[in-house]
Design brief:
This protein is α+β, with helices and mostly antiparallel strands. The chain has one domain: Gcn5-related N-acetyltransferase (GNAT) (Aminopeptidase, 3-Layer(aba) Sandwich). It is built from five helices and seven strands, in the order E-H-H-H-E-E-E-H-E-H-E-E. The protein has a seven-stranded mixed sheet. A hairpin with a 5-residue loop joins strand 2 (56-61) and strand 3 (67-76).
């Protein structure tokens, strides 16, 4: 677990390429086959204008300023959604994901929301449930038709 040696700060547009790399490496953590990873490429590509339009925060080590993960929020149909939450593979299980998720909840609450919604990778569903989210159902993956994505919500 990390305490005072990490900080969460707003991402800058110039962080986009590094955040996309983190998303790609984090998704790869679950050993998806290369052809499936290619289907995810668009979703995992973080662009500067995305960061400018959506609240995006990263977690970095204070001493080295090495980015270890990030999340992004997006408002769709009047609801706030976690659009991304990724931690570099070497640091999965260290508590950084929990720190990012709790920060996302706090930020969303300060924007007046009472709930935060998540479309989760099936491999991350357990994490969100552990953090207090409830599963509302599933939807079909837009890229992989036989793949079901959990839809979750946490009340703030």
């Amino acid at each position: 677990m990390y305490d005072d040696d990490v900080r969460i700060r707003p991402a800058k547009p110039e962080d986009a390429e590094e955040l996309a790399d983190i998303a790609w490496r984090s998704k790869s953590y679950w050993d998806y086959p290369p052809e499936m990873m290619e289907l995810f490429r668009g979703q995992l590509t973080i662009k500067q204008d995305f960061i400018e339009r959506n609240p995006t925060y990263l977690i970095e080590h204070e001493e080295t300023e090495k980015i270890a993960g990030f999340y992004a929020l997006q408002k769709k149909d009047g609801r706030w959604w976690i659009e991304h939450l990724w931690v570099v593979p070497d640091e999965i299980g260290t508590g950084l994901g929990s720190k990012l998720f709790l920060h996302a909840c706090e930020i969303t609450e300060t924007m007046g929301a009472e709930e935060l919604y998540i479309t989760s990778d099936p491999n991350a569903e357990e994490f969100y449930v552990h953090m207090g989210a409830e599963k509302l159902g599933e939807r079909e993956s837009p890229k992989v038709p036989e793949r079901r994505l959990p839809i979750l919500r946490i009340k703030l």
